[in-house]
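subagent[fold] <- orchestrator: predict structure for attached chain, return tokens only, no commentary.
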Amino acid sequence: MSAHRNPYEETARADGLAVGLAHALEGIDIQAAAPGGFAAVPAAWAGPEADLRRLRLADLEGVVFVRRDPLRAHDARAAALARRRLAHVRLGLARRLLDRATEHLGARTAGEEPLIRKQMVIATVADVMTGLELLHHQAVVADDGTGLADVHLLLDELGWEIARLFGAFGYIADDEAARSLYVSALVANTWVATSEHERDEREEGEADG
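subagent[fold] -> orchestrator:
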């Protein structure tokens, strides 16, 4: 575990993606901060009148996508805060799934030896842990432009390294690990963008509206 405690990482590690996302978005005006046409939010936040886009796997994770009001002015500072907090949420989720993966491997054997003791598995887990520590540091110090965008892209890649530790189960969409990783990437796609991409997404959202 990282020696540097972060509340958003800890929340997601303990309670999962939807609770971590709710923590990350506390105090943020969603309609002003979202860079694109839709924003991922906890399902519990969506009122009965909300204009939503739903996906089955996201529903299972307690996440929905709310259409942004194209007439609202964009708050770049709030968007930047959400992006950085979300990076830590995704780090916490990755740690949560790594915890599950090591438990899974500890319960399975090959040649009467737990898989978690196999040299290749030990090396993979060590690489993932190192990657998480590096990305934690990067999430703290990265600039809000391409720096944070790179953190989120690297989290996508590292997440699937964790999924591989589950074997075939890591690639089954209805398995919690694979599903959480997939929805985590979808969430990031609604909140993380380069400046040019942000403008394109906002224009697309306005056209749809």
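orchestrator: received. Logging for downstream: The radius of gyration is 18 Å. The first strand starts at residue 38 and ends at 42.
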